[in-house]
Amino acid sequence: MSLATRWARFRKSEGGSGLALVSPTAIYAILLLAAPLATILLFSVLTDGYLVVEPVFTFGNYIETWTNRIYRSVMMRSLGVSVAVTVLTVLLAYPVAYFVSFHVQPSKKSLWLFLITIPFWTSYLIRVFLWKVILGYNGVINSGLMATGIIDEPLTAISYNVQAFVVTLAHAYAPFAILPIYVVLEKIDRSLLEAGQDLGESKFRTFLRVTLPLSVPGIAAAVLIVFIPTIGDYVTPNLIGGGKIPMIANMIEVLMLVRDNKPLGAAIAVSAMAIVTAVSLLFLFTIRKYLRGQK
Amino acid sequence: MSQSSVRLEIQHLSRAFGGVPVVSDVSLTIAAGQVTCLLGPSGCGKSTTLRMIAGVERPDSGSIRIDGRPVFDARTNLPPEARSVGLIFQDFALFPHLTVAQNVAFGLKTDREAKARRVDELLERVNLPGFGPKHPHQLSGGEQQRVALARALAPRPKVMLMDEPFSGLDNRLRDGIRDTTLEVLKEEGAAVLLVTHEPDEALRMGDEIALMRGGHIVQTGAPYNVYNAPVDRAAAAFFSDINVIRGVSRGALTETPFGSFLTPGHADGGTVEIVIRPQHLKIDLDRAGRGPSPTPMDGTAARGTVIRARFLGRESLVELALDEGGQRLTASVPGVFLPKPGTVLWLMIRRDRCFVFPHPA
């Protein structure tokens, strides 16, 4: 069989057309996702030279990452902020999702979901700036409080600090948390709640024993969707924190672009990725009981 | 049954949705250990009635008492959890995140040991010993139904409400599960209200049947009475196919192909309907043009021609057209009886099995 007929036959086969269909996406993913990731991995085990990366294998970057107290403390701070943002976002998102799913009339649910997604119509940068305007030194809160005479000088506790990041990020990621929780709440059979009450449990106890455990998959999705990107967010710390309180992503940016130590930056990036993966897997492992054994 | 054993008493219960009455003036009493079947076509308000008793739907008016204690009236409206009512759903509504044992124990408020004992006892009773650690999705429909029964029974409810509890089950499984369920319910001594649209189920399960239509209870009574003394044509038609013979009542007599019927109490000159179930039509062979000599109870015999005969397993259905007037009637004959179309047969009807109703205007 000649190569040409074999090629023609392959093109007609189901596998061939399937490959043809996914190839644009596959090429895109390989070029823009897998290749850069491989480069980062490669860089992380090479030696830094002046203005160039020398092709000499070393574990030195990783040793530096895991032993240097600065990198360690920045990493811990980033993890702490991410956990705080995640907890706050999910805690605030759950009641919203619950309200839309259980108390909004079915005909109005689409409208509510639409309203929830409206913040996405503006750029992320603009939303972050909004918080800067609200929380900043001369911001809405400070000038408002000073105008009414409650305080004499601007509060520093609300801007350029970790709390300010957490508030800003929690707001930015709220819809990402609301939607998955809403979806699982919608799937809960309402007769289960009636059954719970008929078996002698109050509405609140039924919520704790039926609704909450059944919504765990949605909570898990919300947690991961918020936790994973927030740890890598560097726009918000830059703008809200004024660059004074760096997170791990800012650290990587500085190492990569300012100090031109690409191998060390790459090693920190890979370490951060590994930590996020480990934390996420640990989280999923802890709640595994609620993720399986369901219809 | 003595007054003191009345478990559930509902009076004048009404409910409308958006101005459309769904349940109107429904009253019922059920004694301990008694099974009442609320029977009616879909949309007749039977499920709404059940949901109002359970407390998940609020009545517009009326009162509900359980063991003499008002759970709903003009002043009281106890939440579902305070009513001591067990509910079995059409889809069973087992908690998917809990095991069978945890499902059954859900409504139990006792300590761990007593809980485990009660769960084992109930699983034993519904014939599912050792199923405790399984999850609901690992069970068959019939097993899920029995878990739902055990779960509802666990807190010893005074009233048990069942909403089409067998309709999700395989036809052949159903009878066995119905009998087990009935046995367990009788042992527990709860008052049972079973909602169903299947007359066979109501006849099989009920100590009493309450026939519901258009939001009203049209007839209440023992299965035998409701089947054999229907209040109107629709009530008769709900339990089986029926034959309707129309005639005009004159001087308390109505002439039909089967002779005259006594129809006292019907307006002179008014149309009456004589209703007879297919199994109460008697068939006799045509012997060279001579008919049978019927007893006085069978009245006059009428001649007819077979149009179609069908075999249904337990019985055969024979459709005939009467020579006089050409009316079509269906007779049900036990076993195999499949005369060819065109065969001439004689028909008699059992007068004591006929119901005479005025023709609805």
TrEMBL record, chain A:
Record-level GO cellular component terms: plasma membrane
Domain of life: Bacteria
Domain spans labelled ABC transmembrane type-1: 75-285
Transmembrane parts of this sequence: 21-46, 79-99, 111-130, 162-185, 206-228, 264-287
Keywords: Cell membrane, Membrane, Transmembrane, Transmembrane helix, Transport
A Pfam family assignment: BPD_transp_1
Localization: Cell membrane
Protein name per its UniProtKB record: Binding-protein-dependent transport systems inner membrane component
Taxonomic lineage from the root: Bacteria, Pseudomonadati, Pseudomonadota, Alphaproteobacteria, Rhodobacterales
Automatic annotation (TrEMBL), chain B:
Membrane-spanning segments: none
Domain ABC transporter: 8-239
Top-rank taxon, per record: Bacteria
GO biological process: quaternary ammonium group transport
Assigned keywords, A-Z: ATP-binding, Cell membrane, Ion transport, Iron, Iron transport, Membrane, Nucleotide-binding, Transport
UniProt-listed Pfam families: ABC_tran (PF00005), TOBE_2 (PF08402)
GO CC field: ATP-binding cassette (ABC) transporter complex
GO molecular function: ABC-type ferric iron transporter activity; ATP binding; ATP hydrolysis activity
SUPFAM superfamilies xrefs: MOP-like, P-loop containing nucleoside triphosphate hydrolases
InterPro entries, A to Z: AAA+_ATPase, ABC_SmlMolc_Importer, ABC_transporter-like_ATP-bd, ABC_transporter-like_CS, ABC_transpr_FbpC, Mo/tungstate-bd_C_term_dom, P-loop_NTPase, Transp-assoc_OB_typ2
PANTHER family in alphabetical order: SPERMIDINE/PUTRESCINE IMPORT ATP-BINDING PROTEIN POTA (PTHR42781), SPERMIDINE_PUTRESCINE IMPORT ATP-BINDING PROTEIN POTA (PTHR42781:SF4)
Protein name from the UniProt record: ABC transporter related protein
Origin species: Rhodobacter ferrooxidans
